[in-house]
Write a structure and sequence with these properties.
Length: 379
């Protein structure tokens, strides 16, 4: 976000001191305190009202009060219709109010009135990406990077514009932003969110495991900084869900072989079922490891995960039930010396398919949640 403007030359010295202190508070993220400091200057003939409203709009945005910010942005435009800052603040306010479409024109106007300022171009790129205007989003992001190649926000805008169309390019842009500013939280979050995208397959290998460990630690850090944020929790949850999905896969692959082996009534079904269970357990232990190591209170996180992602938990439970059914049937047939395992093995497909339906339902919910969180970031 571009910084608040300097006070007008005609402002009284006392007002200038208030403006300077308000700017400091805004930069520190103490928007409510800045707004309280500026409020007495509203309507004060000795204070420049354009600067007062501009600073108040910034303060309310920082304080997560976009309604009040929009009012002050409109007041700025009433005093100076061609003020790019007024259009920019109005666009940011509407976006924060979830009126993404309504933020488009003010941001376009801000970029047109102040073409050398990278901030309106970057925010316009983000908004266009959310609205599916991919060509305009990419063009505005390129302008932001060209105007401010050393600014993390510009590269974040490029990553956001590419997020849904070129994941590899988006990842490079987010990493470039973090090279410039290792503490840039939106880039940290979106880089992790990119890997947690519900349609993205889980990758194996040592490098992927290291990336997941880094991602888990980053999300726990972000959660500590923003305890009320739902975004880091989603990324951690999604890592567990991906591990559950990968862990359940051996049951589906093994079922046809176990069913075929059940005709003989020998040790084959039991061996295959136990092998599938061991692979499932090893996958779950290994692939949930990064989250388990990063989270301090594992029990509390597990309870919360079961509430938040109950569809995935039910799905995994049904797949586990299918495996237990096959295990009991194959062991029973082995001990009894008969061939009665096959009907039970065939019947195990019912809970397995029901589990798949529950996992698909969780994935559809996760896609909607992912889209919302991508737009709202760390809120």
């Amino acid at each position: 976000m571009s910084g608040p403007p300097d006070p007008a030359p005609g402002s009284v010295p006392g007002a200038e001191a208030v403006f300077a202190r308000a700017r400091e508070l805004i930069v520190l993220g103490r928007g409510e305190r800045a707004a309280a400091l500026l409020a007495p200057l509203l309507g004060d003939g000795g204070a420049d009202q354009l600067t007062v409203h501009n600073l108040l709009a910034h303060a309310h945005l920082v304080a997560d009060d976009p309604g009040a910010a929009a009012e002050h942005a409109r007041a700025v435009l009433a005093l100076a219709p061609d003020a790019p800052g007024g259009h920019f603040l109005l666009g940011l306010s509407r976006r924060q109010l979830d009126d993404v479409a309504g933020s488009l024109e003010p941001l376009r106007q801000a970029a047109r009135l102040d073409p050398m300022n990278p901030d309106p171009h970057g925010q316009l790129a983000v908004t266009c990406a959310d609205l599916g205007l991919r060509d305009e989003a990419a063009a505005e992001a390129r302008r932001a990077v060209r105007l401010a190649p050393g600014a993390a926000a510009s590269h974040f805008a490029m990553g956001y514009a590419l997020h849904d169309v070129d994941p590899a390019g988006a990842e490079d842009a987010y990493r470039r932003a973090l090279e410039l500013d290792p503490g840039h939280r939106p880039s940290q979050y979106n880089l992790a969110l990119l890997a947690a995208e519900p349609r993205r397959a889980r990758r194996g290998g040592r490098r992927a495991a290291e990336a997941e460990a880094e991602r888990s630690a980053t999300m726990v850090r972000l959660l500590a900084q923003s305890p009320s944020s739902r975004a880091p929790v989603f990324v951690l949850d999604q890592q567990i869900v991906q591990a559950l999905g990968a862990g359940c896969a051996p049951v589906y692959f093994a079922w046809p072989m176990i069913r075929a082996a059940a005709r003989t009534g020998d040790v084959g079904p039991a061996v295959l079922t136990v092998a599938a269970g061991l692979i499932m357990a090893l996958c779950l232990v290994r692939w949930t490891g990064p989250v388990r190591r990063a989270v301090a209170d594992r029990r509390s996180f597990a309870r919360g995960f079961a509430r938040r992602r109950w569809r995935a938990v039910v799905g995994a439970g049904l797949v586990a039930l299918a495996w237990l059914t096959m295990l009991a049937a194959s062991l029973g047939a082995l001990v009894g010396g008969g061939g009665g395992a096959r009907p039970w093995v065939e019947g195990a497909i019912v809970p397995a398919l029901a589990g798949a339906v529950a996992m698909i339902a969780d994935r559809r919910w996760a896609r909607r949640r992912y889209a919302w969180l991508k737009r709202h970031g760390l809120r």
